[in-house]
Amino acid sequence: MIYLDYAATSYPKSEEVYKAMEDVMRNVSVNAGRGSYHLAKKAEELIIATRSKVARLAAVPDIGQVVFAPSATIAANEILNGISWEAQDRILVSPYEHNAIMRTTEHLRQTKDLQIDVLPLQPDTLEIDIAKSMDLIHLYKPKLICLTQISNVTGYILPLEVLCKAAKEEQCLVCIDGAQGFGLLPLEPLKDCTDFYLFAGHKSIGGPFGIGGYINYSKYPLKPFLYGGNGSDSLNLSLPESGIKRYEVGSPDIIAVAGLQAAIENRVSYEVIYNHEQELIQYFRQQTADLDDLILFAKDTPTDKCLGIQSFAIEGFLANEVGQILDEEFDIAVRTGYHCAPLIHDALLSKPYGGTVRMSVGRYTTKEEIDRMVEALEDIMEYG
Question: So what CATH class is 2-10+269-383?
Answer without folding.
Answer: alpha beta
